[in-house]
Design brief:
194 residues, single chain, alpha/beta, Rossmann fold, 7 helices
């Protein structure tokens, strides 16, 4: 009897190992907010707050990744900070420095310095992203910068083909991109405005 169980375990292990080697462990984002329209940064901030309440409320330290010149992203972060209160420690970094997957990211240095895991929320602007005719498989290239650009191109395409989204309004997608990183991909109706 034990030989049958041992043989079964060995077969499952062998098949699992083969599948991991053959197909690899590829990054994949997990949708939190599907393509949606928002009237204001505060509305987007409130939606993120409600969807992510447990993570936001349990974290002592939060990192936000925003571009320096984006008042819209800053207003979303300010709304989240107002809803969460002053009992937390906040850091604002550039988007690329707030992802956990970037090996030299500032967030990893902060985690080492503080000795705890930190949740990060990154806000990506889709204004200057290349438009693509169809969705692509972003898992083929594990180099982080290419992966995130591919992901941004896909999010822009998802927003543009969504039947529920009015392209004359601000639209966004919010996804979990790693174990402790979430990203909002935001499209503005007029590509010159922020």
């Amino acid at each position: 009897m034990w030989k049958v169980i041992l043989t079964g375990i060995l077969v499952v292990s062998a098949v699992s190992t083969y599948l991991v080697i053959e197909f690899g462990l590829k990054p994949k984002s997990i949708p939190v907010i599907r393509p949606s329209n928002f009237q204001s940064p505060e509305q987007l901030g409130e939606y993120i707050f409600r969807q992510m309440y447990q993570v936001l409320s349990e974290s002592e330290v939060l990192v936000f990744g925003i571009k320096n010149d984006s008042s819209f992203h800053l207003k979303v972060v300010e709304h989240l900070k107002a809803r969460l209160g002053n009992k937390k420690i906040y850091y604002i970094l550039s988007p690329i420095q707030a992802y956990h997957r970037e090996p030299q990211a500032e967030i990893l240095k902060l985690e080492n310095q503080l000795g705890k895991s930190i949740a990060s929320f990154v806000f990506e602007d889709l204004s200057n992203v290349q438009k693509i005719p169809q969705l692509q498989d972003c898992s083929n290239d594990l180099r982080f910068h290419y992966w995130i650009e591919c992901l941004k191109e896909n999010k822009l395409r998802q927003i543009e083909i969504s039947k529920k989204v009015n392209l004359n309004l601000i639209s966004a997608v919010f996804e979990r991109v790693s174990e402790r990183s979430w990203a909002a991909f935001i499209r503005f109706p007029d590509l010159d405005s922020k």
